[in-house]
Design goal:
The protein is of the alpha+beta class. The chain has helices spanning 2-12, 21-35, 74-86, 90-97, 116-121, 153-174, 180-208, 212-225, 230-244, and strands at residues 41-49, 64-71, 101-103, 126-134, 137-145. It folds into two domains: 2-178, Beta-Lactamase; 183-244, Arc Repressor Mutant, subunit A, CATH 1.10.10.10. A five-stranded antiparallel sheet has the order 2-1-5-4-3.
Amino acid sequence: MWTERLAREIGMLGQADNSTPERALDQMSTAAARGVPGCSAALVVIWHDVGPGDERSEEVAGRHVVVDYGASHSDLATAFEHQYTTDEGPTVEAVREMRPVHVGDVLREDRWPNYTSMAVQCGDRSSVTFPCELEGEVVTFGVHAGRADAFDAAVMAPLVALLAEHAAMALHSAGRYTDVAREAAHMRRAMSVRAVIDQAKGIIMHARGCDAGEAFEELRRVAQRNRMKVADVARSLVSEHAASTAPGVSRRS
């Protein structure tokens, strides 16, 4: 059966000698996007539970923070980073409630009002996300589609659960997710993404006289064309803009 073959494939990822955590997560999400019927993109996230006794900043105390993640498509990465920075969305709810979350159509949802617009822009209309515990951390495994009602929850939930369990076992075997400094770096990256994208949108809006939605679409087109994440395109634009407007910078006519 395809589910068993895919589960075995995901279970083997991350165990190769030359594999890195980032590569394993990317490969898992790509394998799921390719192998699950109806799935157009997949997302695998490693979370750490920040409790009262943890030496973390007060702003994240009592919630889960991202250790690392892999998304099979840059738009899904953008949608997830928005979930993380606003603390709203199916993946965030799955890890917070520690239960499967099914979305038939995000346009019919009222659970995450701050996520709906971003989800539609990024093509995340329907999804099934399953959380799985991993030695003090949590793995969430989500399959996503650009069309509504792409998944039968009763059928897909146990299959995604199987994939999540195999991913968790593979990542546990790798044993590479306990470095606090690395975790903090990823947390800071995800928390700052929204501000960088908004800054880049402002630059485009000022230069072209367009609105925020059109500016985001331009960032997304550039990201797709160059196979990059929207956040990386935004950082590049902000950096180039800062360099071009710095005092003392000469401009050629």
